[in-house]
């Protein structure tokens, strides 16, 4: 589904928030009731003037209370009741709108994050992390701010216009038009303001994404920045993007700041007109003095709140610009989806077939060309080849991070497109060269994906990965915080925790993608010993540059430019005297012959 840029963002938001519709109506009712009682004090003041001026001929006298003292006491009690109800409705509306804002914000953020997790890797490669963070945080927060304050302001403004306008028409139909005259100009001005301010706020939101992207990248790469003494260079880049953000905001401020003064002058004309016209009617005896007082106060109540309309619309447009971005994200449809078939881990033997696979990344040349290979269940195969030959792509296709343009991949005879993604990925343990550890404890990182695993199981997995000995030497052993991305640990320690994580998962298929490429010889030997144990009885795919780590594989596939050019055991490939044999001689120092 493509993003809907034609429907008004408020309509899109209401469609999305259908689960909150009842609460929205209740909050709206509280806002209306609060405003109705808020409009009562000017009426009460008019009644007080009527009592003092007309006394025995006042409105209360006609209701059967000729005594002025009694009239004033009744008016005082009525005032307390009105103010009491106004306070009650104000408490309820704030409670309702603010909780509603928090709940919608919470639900929208969870929905957006949940949806992001369903999108394929290609989606993330085309977008910056900072940009998506801006949507999940800043944009959703903008919407929360509007629901917290702005929604109530708009509803109460509309209530004021309808109520006071109706009162004017009832009391003084001859001069009511004077008070209402500014309204069309205010509405027209508001429409033009929204139309011109909306693209400016959209540009601001986009610039926030760009700025967040730079900040996120720089914080992640702070070690590189420091090592290349590029602090001033990065500071200038952030300064430049922040300056663009500042300019875009100033562009919007120039318009929004002019709105209120212009509207105020239009409102002043209406207020002055009703003040003079109704005053002449009261002086000539055509209008009750109390009614004149009500009109003057009500005119102020009707027109002066309109000066806040610019601020409210400003908040509204910021929220709608953010709403567009959040809902566009929610409408981005994943291209890789669940298949209909369920397959439990216990049912999987581990036989994998790549049948005539062709694949290329978007806007790149072909990566795999008619690749076919079969991996028997329980055996270990190795993939080697130059950078860019397609080794890691094979793993990404197996995990369905991407879909091949041609061919099929079978797991125990089942096309992996027909399997539930959860079942497929649950059956595969990935130990990658680029180990990712989460900010948390060693225990939590080993148990990641096997949530709720007992400490005994975690320790057993760590021992299998030869990680237990260094873990117990950490300050808090298994409860030691590893830091963001595991930065408090060495590369070899992170790698062994990653292997322990895969051991605990106990998958029927294990993928080792350059699992020992970034460690020293001693650590490599330890990792190799653990891998020899944990690969027994599992289908294992090993990607390696160090051929010493794969010489015992059941079968080795040599890739070149997306094609399998050699296949066989270590001894058979050496006898073949091709690319593999040449690389072996280069790595062992037996013969130097060109580059692989």
UniProtKB/TrEMBL annotation:
Residues 352-586 form the ABC transporter domain. CDD domains: ABC_6TM_exporter_like. GO terms for molecular function: ABC-type oligopeptide transporter activity; ATP binding; ATP hydrolysis activity. The chain crosses the membrane at residues 72-92, 154-171, 177-193, 252-283. PROSITE patterns: ABC_TM1F (PS50929), ABC_TRANSPORTER_1 (PS00211), ABC_TRANSPORTER_2 (PS50893). The keyword Lipid metabolism does not apply. This is ABC transporter-related protein. Residues 25-318 form the ABC transmembrane type-1 domain. One of its GO terms (cellular component) is plasma membrane. Signal peptide: none annotated. Pfam families: ABC_membrane, ABC_tran. Its main location: membrane. It is a multi-pass membrane protein. The lineage of its organism: Bacteria, Pseudomonadati, Pseudomonadota, Betaproteobacteria, Nitrosomonadales. Keywords: ATP-binding, Cell membrane, Membrane, Nucleotide-binding, Transmembrane, Transmembrane helix, Transport. It is found in: Cell membrane. InterPro entries: AAA+_ATPase, ABC1_TM_dom, ABC1_TM_sf, ABC_transporter-like_ATP-bd, ABC_transporter-like_CS, P-loop_NTPase, Type_1_exporter. It comes from Nitrosomonas eutropha (strain DSM 101675 / C91 / Nm57).
